[in-house]
Structure formats: structure tokens, C-alpha cells
Design a protein that fits this description.
heterodimer; A: about 110 residues; mainly alpha; globular; B: about 160 residues; 7 helices; about 0% strand
């Protein structure tokens, strides 16, 4: 695939804490973790783990990033691409400084 | 490119790997209890030396024939040590310490066996680390489907 050549972004787990928190607050407010988990085809036991953690007051989006970014070692570029495919344009904006400038054209201009 | 230097080979037994390197691996396996995912798929009576080379560990075949090394009870025994850990010790380290000294001489797990089992369990954080830092090899290939698959921007996207 082309991604191997184009992707020199950091792993998701190295995202600065402030960005990660801002991102998770945004994703939690949209309540999209289940759609994210379904899109990347997380296994049922991992989905269940996120659900249990969220009933204990943990951020489900943070748990999603822990699993998809932590165990599977995905990059911020892949996360950016995932948000693009799911049309989560504000989420793309939150992490845009951590992907190459040439990918910023994928973020649609914000509507008035 | 041809690897110039690697710290270990695929045939290096895990008990010969530096404690500090095992520790780094263990901290990766602590995330999301990945050590449990690894421990639960280790085959019984594996001829580790014969399975160390790339692609030599035919997992489905071996696991179906000989079964699994650790029972759910043994895995929960490791879980039970969590409260007794000293600071700086990790639960994954306890698991690796048990595994690396287990079995007869030819069954002692190697770096090559570890890497192939990590890929089998889709623990790519640890698999990428072992490939790059232990073996100076490229990261293992990803499946084209499922949670480990790469996602990339569609270059013929309508948004362009």
C-alpha cells in the first residue's frame, strides 16, 4: 500500500496529552466510539472492555485509542484517515498538526 | 536494505535476552493486558528451535495438533501476582519469566517464536518492537482486514 511510504507520523500513543484529551472530549461528546470500533472491526471482547470501562466513568474514546493505538500500534496518520472516512472533520482538525501538511487538504473548509 | 547489526537472532532464547530489553517488551505487553492474549495462545511442547525461522511456526497446524501450553487457571495465577509486584516490576515480566524458563531444552522459547506468536495474536505494538529493536528487521506485514489493517487516505477521494 501507499501508506507505508507516505506515513512518517508518530504512533497514536505518543500524541501529546493535551491533544489526546481534547480529542477524546470531542469524540465522547459525539458519542461515536462504537462507530469507530465497528469501522476498524475491533473484536467483541475489546468492544466489551471499552463498554465496561465507560460504565466505570472512563472515557470510551480514550479506551478506544488505548486499544487501537496501543495494541495495534497505529499512527496518527491512520487515525486522521479513519476520521476522514467517517467524516469526523473536527476530529481531523484537532490532530492536524501531527500529520504532514500535505494531508491538510483532506479537511473540508468549515461551514459557516 | 540488509541488516547491518542486530542484537539478537531469531534463534536467541528469551532467557538469553537482556533483562532491560525484556523489561521494555513487558511494558508494551502491559497495555490492555496484551500479555494475557499472548500467554493464552502459546502452543504446548513447541520445538522452538525448529519454529524460529520466518514462517516456520505453522500456528493453526501446531495448535490443533498439540494444544495450548497454559490453561485459564494458570493465566489467572499470573493475574493473582499483580498485587504482590514490587515497584518497577510488571505483570508481563512475570509472565515472560515463567515462559522463558519453562519446558525442555528444545522447547525454550526464542525471539523468532515470540515474534511469530505476537503476529498471530495481532499484538503489533510488541511485534514491531521485537522486529525493529531485537532483530533489526522491518516491521511485520499487516493483514488487509481487521483492526490491525492499515487505513490510508483515499487518493482519488471526491474531497480532493
Amino acid at each position: 500500500t501507499r501508506s507505508g511510504r507516505e506515513d512518517n507520523s508518530m504512533p497514536i500513543r505518543l500524541l501529546p496529552e493535551t491533544v489526546r484529551q481534547q480529542l477524546c472530549e470531542h469524540l465522547d461528546s459525539l458519542d461515536v466510539w462504537q462507530q469507530l470500533a465497528a469501522f476498524v472491526k475491533l473484536y467483541p471482547n475489546d468492544v466489551q472492555h471499552i463498554r465496561i470501562q465507560s460504565t466505570r466513568g472512563r472515557s470510551p474514546s480514550m479506551e478506544f485509542l488505548n486499544i487501537w493505538g496501543g495494541q495495534y500500534n497505529h499512527s496518527v496518520y491512520s487515525l486522521f484517515a479513519l476520521f476522514h472516512k467517517m467524516k469526523l472533520h473536527n476530529a481531523m482538525r484537532i490532530i492536524k498538526d501531527h500529520v504532514d501538511d500535505k494531508f491538510h487538504k483532506y479537511i473540508p473548509r468549515s461551514m459557516p | 536494505s540488509v541488516p547491518i547489526y542486530s542484537k539478537y537472532t531469531r534463534y536467541t532464547e528469551l532467557r538469553r535476552v537482556d533483562d532491560n530489553d525484556i523489561y521494555k517488551l513487558a511494558t508494551i505487553l502491559d497495555v490492555n493486558s496484551c500479555w494475557r492474549k499472548l500467554m493464552s495462545i502459546i502452543p504446548k511442547r513447541l520445538d522452538a528451535q525448529a519454529c524460529s525461522a520466518p514462517g516456520a511456526l505453522k500456528y493453526q497446524e501446531i495448535a490443533a495438533k498439540v494444544g495450548l501450553k497454559y490453561t485459564a487457571q494458570q493465566i489467572s495465577l499470573i493475574d493473582g501476582t499483580a498485587e504482590r509486584l514490587t515497584p518497577g516490576q510488571s505483570i508481563s515480566q512475570v509472565m515472560i519469566d515463567e515462559w522463558k524458563t519453562s519446558g525442555k531444552l528444545n522447547e525454550r522459547p526464542t525471539v523468532g517464536v515470540l515474534l511469530q506468536l505476537l503476529v498471530q495474536a495481532e499484538i503489533y505494538s510488541a511485534a514491531d518492537f521485537v522486529a525493529l529493536h531485537f532483530l533489526n528487521e522491518p516491521k511485520p506485514d499487516r493483514p488487509t482486514d481487521g483492526p490491525a489493517a492499515h487505513i490510508s487516505l483515499d487518493l482519488c477521494s471526491e474531497d480532493l
